[in-house]
C-alpha cells in the first residue's frame, strides 16, 4: 500500500488557494440535466468523483468541455438525454443517485444504479425514494437498480424529511424545479453546499425560497435559462490548513475562501487563541 511519511517539527508558512468544493460541485453538475441551455461552472475541483460525474453526463449525451487548467466546465445538453446511469460509473460514487430526481423531473423516467451497488437500506436511499413517490413517481428496485417513472410528471407537495439528509435534500430540491405546482420541503439540510445548489438553480431561473433554517419552497417552472456559476470553496480543506497552521505555530494566507461561510469554525478557533484575520476572499492565520 502507498503511504505518507510526515517529518514534523516545522512551521508551515506561505499562501494556499483552496479548491472548489466537491460536495457542492456534484449536485450542481447533476442539476444541469434539467436544461438544454449553455451552463458554465467555474472553480470545480479536479478530483475523481467530479470526473466520474462528468463521464456519466457524457454517457447520457451531454456535451461537456472541461478545462482542467482553468477549472471550468461548459455543458450543453441535447434535447433528449439517455435516462440510464450504470453501475460501472456509480459504483465508486454515492452522489450518483442524485441523477434520479433530475431525470424524473426532466424526462419522467430513470434507471439508476444504487450507490456503490449497495442494497436498499444500507444507505438512506429510502429518504430519496419515499419523497419521489410522494411526488407521484412509481419506483421499484430490481437487480441493484432503481427503476422509476412519473408518466404525468412530478407534482409538488409537502415533504417533511424524517431525518436531515444533505443528499435527499439536494435530490428532491432538483426534482422540484420542474415539477407541477409548489413543493414545500421541511427538515432540510442547511449546509453551505445546499445553499450553493440553491444559488445555482436560481441563476437558471428556478423559483426557490428559503423558509427559516430548514424549510425550502419551490415553485415548478417549465423552462430554464443559461447560467454561469462559481462553486464555493472546500470547507474541509480550508479548515485543515487553518488547524495545521495552529498546530505548528505557523503563518499562512488562505485564498479563494469566503470567511462568512466558515464563521463558526473561525470563531471557535479564535477562542483557542488562534489569530485569524478575515478579509473579503482570504484569511490570514497566525499563532502566538
Please give a structural write-up.
This protein has 9 helices and 16 strands. The protein is an alpha/beta fold. It has 2 domains: 13-18 and 234-286, no CATH class; 22-230, UDP-n-acetylglucosamine1-carboxyvinyl-transferase, Chain (Alpha-beta prism), CATH 3.65.10. The strands form 4 sheets. Strands 1-14-16-15 form a 4-stranded mixed sheet, with helices on one face. Strands 3-4-2-13 form a 4-stranded mixed sheet, with helices on one face. Helix 1 (22-31) runs parallel beside helix 7 (192-203) and helix 6 (166-176) runs parallel beside helix 7. It is globular. The chain starts with 12 loop residues before the first strand and ends with a strand. Mean pLDDT is 93; it is low at 117-122.
